[in-house]
Amino acid sequence: MIDELVNGYSLFMIFHYFQLENKLANECLLSILFSSLYNLVMASLERLLDSQLPFSFVAKKRDWIDASYTERLKHLLQGDLDFQGTNGAYASHNFHAFPAKFPPQLPSLFIKQLTQPGDVVLDPMAGSGTTLVEAVLAKRIGVGCDIDPLALMISKVKTTPLDPMLVGKTGYRISHHAQQLLKGNPHNLWRIKAAWTPKTRDFVDYWFMPQTQLELLALSHVIDRLDDASLRQFFRLIFSSIIITKSGGVSLARDLAHTRPHRAKVIYDAAGEVLEGMALVKEGNPRLPHISKTLSSPVKEFDKRLNKALDGVRLLSRLKEAQTILAQANAQALPLASNSVDLIVTSPPYASNAIDYMRAHKFSLVWFGYPIEALGQARRKYVGGETTMDMRFESLPDYPTKIVQEVHRLDEKKGRVLHRYYSEMKRVLREMHRVLKPGKAAILVVGSSVMRGRDTETGRCLADIGTTLGFTLVDIGVRYIDRDRRMMPAGNRIDLSSQIQRRMHQEFVIGFLK
């Protein structure tokens, strides 16, 4: 109860740590904070009056670990965490593809069982915003951080209520205006591309056919001229969603959602005419279905994606009091006050860029004005990257040290990369421990990587690192996932007799308590 009374103070501390850009944003957030503080105080006082416990005990409760809370957490971790066959495309979860995201039912389970309305739920590596969406749906305050610009856009759009009628009308105007531009002088659109860096233009020319480029330029030009920032972000996300898809979208890439794109060798237009790769077609290459792609109109795909997203927009529009705070920040240095968060639910990246987010995200970001060179530099800063130059390595507990040394003996470079990953995750866990309230839980959903045939045993290693930082390990749950949900690179053969490959179809749900 005292934790809940203190919650309002935590909100103000979160507000203090986030530097908002304008007066209007400050006024809006202050209004939310005062409303939340009032509701929290009144709810807590009601529970205090109903309680049979003396106030002196309640006042000291924050210094105790609530046994019922701990047992509840352990019970959840030992339960069914697979969620096989469940629908994960409700609300705004289907707005945009994202590799290796966990099912929304997973964070929802912990949020509903371990928090109350008005509590602060943090995802320090927000990714596609799954945890934040579930926090909003459960009337909690979602706080998210990420350094990936597309991840932040996805999270923001998926948690921002909009007027469905206005979205529909604006989408129609965007599509209509883009088609009008395409009927005019194409040189006006090519001038937009002329402002890009040479390497960015080369990247776009390699991955997008000229007609596709024209349609994308027309759409992006109209979207960028929208005055309303929330609408502009929403339609940028719809634009991005026609590029980053499991099928590779309107680019020449195949399987962009798995982050290992390969350019199609045979290209068909919408009418079925071969534009590239006629020799492969004539020779009857047996792999033709796996190396071919049929182009589609970006404007038509834009209309389809918008119509598909409108159901989620309608649902979000009912959440008038949705409260989320997002920041472009590194999870190794969170811009949050200590002891300000009621629950953490997050899914850290894999080691050694096993899921290379920027490799896919740059296909969209270049159309929003990001130079390809800057995106390459940003990729180096992601947790789990492969560059070890100027890296600050941390000392590790015995078992993670053993794993790093074994990988190092097999491949010196891979050993340093793994040491980098566990060093970065130690700093992330240290920050998570700092911002979490005493007696509260942090949930990490992690998968192992394989380096030179050696399983990195990420679940056990992160558990060991967390306990050395002051966390109590309650339990480690195991969830089994299918190939598509794990987003393994396309084309890999599965050998179920291999212990390593079997484990690559598992994720580990680590339950920490502060």
Count of individual helical segments = 22
Helix content: 40-55%
Alpha-beta content class: alpha/beta
Contiguous low-pLDDT stretches (5 residues minimum) are: 1-9, 15-64, 486-503
Main beta sheet strand tally, sense and closure = 7 strands, mixed
Give the overall shape.
globular
Relative strand content:
5-15%
By DSSP, the count of extended strands is: 14
Q: Give the radius of gyration.
A: 24 Å
The first-to-last residue Cα distance is 17 Å
**Which strands sit side by side, in order, in the main sheet?**
8-2-1-9-10-14-13
Average pLDDT, rounded to a whole number, is: 83
Q: Can you describe what's shown?
A:
By secondary structure, the chain is α/β, with parallel strands linked by helices. Helix content is 50%, strand content 13%. It is built from 22 helices and 14 strands. The chain has a 7-stranded mixed β-sheet with strand order 8-2-1-9-10-14-13, with helices on both faces. It has a 3-stranded mixed β-sheet with strand order 6-5-7. It has a two-stranded antiparallel ribbon with strand order 3-4. A hairpin with a 7-residue loop joins strand 3 and strand 4. Helix 1 runs antiparallel to helix 2. The radius of gyration is 24 Å and the shape is globular. The N terminus is likely disordered.
